[in-house]
Write a sequence for this structure.
C-alpha cells in the first residue's frame, strides 16, 4: 500500500499477515493435538488456590447439561398468581385473593389453587398453574404477612389485594430462557474467563475440553550473550531478549522453553534437533541482518529473510523447521532488544493471543496530540516509545534507538508514525497502543 514510499520493503500489515498465515494454523493444530478433558471442579480448585486462570480457550464445544434457568422461577419477591384471576382488577375494584403458603428459594411448591396468590421469593420456583408474579410492593398490603411456622402457613387467614391486571409471564424467568439442555453453551475457541467458568458450572458441565498453553521454543542467538545474573566477561551482554520475550510470550498464553546459542549454525541445529516434540512454534532473536555471523539466516536456508518497512524491527525472518516429524513455524526477530520486543507486539502477539484467549486480544489503541514535534524516516512505519501526560498528550520516552531498553521499560504506550510521514508538529494527533 505504501510501496511508493517504502522502497519495496514488505509492509507491516503484509508481514503480520504472513506470520499469522503460518502461525495460526500451527497453533490451531497444536490445540487439537493436545486437547484433553479437564475436570471443572479441579480447575476451580486450582484457580482458587492462586494458580490463576491461565489464558486458555475451549478446545471443544461446551454443551449445556441442564437448562438455564432449570425451572420457571420468580424474578422478584412477590405473589405468584394466575393472570386470569386479576383480569378485571382496578384501583376502584381491586381483586382480593387468599394468600397461599409462601415459596422460599430452594423449595418445590404445590400447584397454585385457582383464586389464590402464593408469596414467592426471588429465584424460587413459580408454582404450577401460576403464570405471573406481582411484586410485593405493588400489592396491598405492600409487604408479606408474617408466617408463623416452619411450614410457612400464614399466621392467620389473610388476603392480598391487587389493583391492576398482570400480563402473563410478568417477572417469570422461563425455564431454558438462557440456554436449553443440550444446546451449545460455549463454542470451541471461546477464551475461558471468569464468566465462562460461571456459565459452565451453572449449566452443569463436569468437564471441558481444554488444551494446555502452546509450547514455544525461544532461542536467543549471539556469541556475546550471557545468562541473567552472570558476571559479564569482556564484550558480553545479558540475554535481555530471553527475559522480555519469555514474559511476553507467557502473558500471551504460551509455555516457554528458552535456549541461548552462540553464532554457530551447528549449535542452533543441535538446539532444534533436541527440541521437545510438543513445541508448536519457534521464536528466535538475533542473527538475521547483514553481518558475517548471522546464525539464524545461515541455518534456515529455505526461509524468507527480508526487510519490513518498520523501525525498529526492520530485519525479519519467517519459515519452518522440522522438529521430530512435524514442520513447525519459526519466526525470526532481530536481536536489538527494542526491535525484538516491538516485533513481538506487531507480528506475534495478535495471533498468539487470538489462539490462546489471552487478554487483551489486541492492545487497546488510542489517539492523542503530540506533546512535542518529532521526525520520522518517511520510508518506514516508526514505532516510538511514549507515555501520556496528565493532559492526555503523547510524549516520547527516549529516542528511536533500538538498544534503548530502559526507555522501553519506562514507556506506557507504543506510538505509531505511519510511512510517508517525515515530521509531525506539537499538537498533531498520533495513534498509540497501550502497553499496560
Ligand atoms: N549493515 C547492516 N547492519 C545492520 C542492519 C542492516 O540493515 N545492515 N540492520 C540493523 C538493524 S535495524 C537491526 S535491528 C540489527 C539486527 O541484527 P540481528 O538480528 O542480526 O541481531 P544481532 O546482530 O545478533 O544483534 C543486534 C544487537 O542486539 C544485541 N542483542 C542480540 N540479542 C540480544 C539478547 N538476547 N539480549 C540482549 N541484546 C541482544 C546484540 O548484542 C547487538 O547489539 O542489525 C543492524 N545491523
Ligand atoms: O530494526 Mo532495527 O530494529 O531498527 O534496530
Amino acid at each position: 500500500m505504501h510501496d511508493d514510499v517504502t522502497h519495496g520493503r514488505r509492509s507491516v500489515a503484509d508481514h503480520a499477515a504472513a506470520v499469522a498465515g503460518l502461525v495460526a494454523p500451527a497453533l490451531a493444530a497444536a490445540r487439537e493435538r493436545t486437547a484433553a478433558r479437564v475436570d471443572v471442579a479441579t480447575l476451580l480448585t486450582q484457580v482458587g488456590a492462586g494458580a490463576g486462570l491461565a489464558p486458555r480457550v475451549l478446545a471443544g464445544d461446551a454443551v449445556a447439561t441442564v437448562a438455564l434457568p432449570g425451572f420457571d422461577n420468580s424474578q422478584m419477591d412477590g405473589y405468584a398468581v394466575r393472570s386470569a384471576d386479576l383480569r378485571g382488577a382496578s384501583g376502584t375494584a381491586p381483586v382480593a385473593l387468599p394468600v397461599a403458603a409462601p415459596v422460599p428459594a430452594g423449595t418445590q411448591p404445590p400447584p397454585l389453587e385457582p383464586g389464590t396468590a402464593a408469596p414467592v421469593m426471588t429465584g424460587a420456583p413459580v408454582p404450577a398453574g401460576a403464570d405471573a408474579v406481582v411484586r410485593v410492593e405493588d400489592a396491598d398490603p405492600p409487604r408479606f404477612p408474617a408466617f408463623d411456622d416452619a411450614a410457612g402457613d400464614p399466621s392467620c387467614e389473610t388476603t392480598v389485594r391487587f389493583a391492576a391486571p398482570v400480563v402473563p409471564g410478568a417477572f417469570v424467568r422461563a425455564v431454558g430462557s438462557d440456554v436449553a439442555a443440550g444446546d451449545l453453551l460455549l463454542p470451541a475457541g471461546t477464551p475461558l474467563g471468569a464468566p465462562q467458568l460461571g456459565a459452565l458450572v451453572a449449566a452443569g458441565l463436569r468437564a471441558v475440553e481444554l488444551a494446555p498453553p502452546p509450547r514455544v521454543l525461544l532461542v536467543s542467538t549471539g556469541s556475546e550473550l550471557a545468562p541473567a545474573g552472570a558476571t559479564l566477561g569482556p564484550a558480553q551482554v545479558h540475554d535481555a531478549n530471553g527475559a522480555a520475550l519469555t514474559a511476553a510470550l507467557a502473558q500471551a498464553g504460551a509455555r516457554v522453553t528458552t535456549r541461548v546459542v552462540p553464532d554457530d549454525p551447528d549449535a542452533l541445529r543441535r538446539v532444534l534437533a533436541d527440541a521437545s516434540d510438543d513445541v508448536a512454534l519457534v521464536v528466535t532473536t538475533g542473527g538475521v541482518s547483514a553481518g558475517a555471523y548471522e546464525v539464524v539466516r545461515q541455518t534456515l536456508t529455505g526461509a524468507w529473510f527480508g526487510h519490513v518497512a518498520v523501525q525498529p524491527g526492520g530485519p525479519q525472518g519467517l519459515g519452518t523447521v522440522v522438529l521430530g516429524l512435524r514442520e513447525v513455524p519459526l519466526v525470526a526477530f532481530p536481536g536489538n532488544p527494542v526491535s525484538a520486543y516491538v516485533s513481538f507486539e506487531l507480528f506475534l502477539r495478535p495471533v498468539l493471543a487470538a489462539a490462546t484467549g489471552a487478554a487483551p486480544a489486541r492492545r487497546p489503541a488510542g489517539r492523542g496530540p503530540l506533546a512535542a514535534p518529532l521526525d520520522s524516516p518517511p520510508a518506514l512505519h516508526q514505532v516510538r516509545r511514549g507515555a501520556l501526560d496528565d493532559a492526555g498528550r503523547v510524549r516520547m520516552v527516549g529516542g528511536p534507538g533500538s538498544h534503548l531498553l530502559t526507555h522501553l521499560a519506562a514507556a506506557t504506550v507504543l506510538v505509531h508514525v505511519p510511512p510517508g510521514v517525515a515530521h509531525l508538529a506539537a499538537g498533531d494527533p498520533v495513534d498509540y497502543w497501550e502497553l499496560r
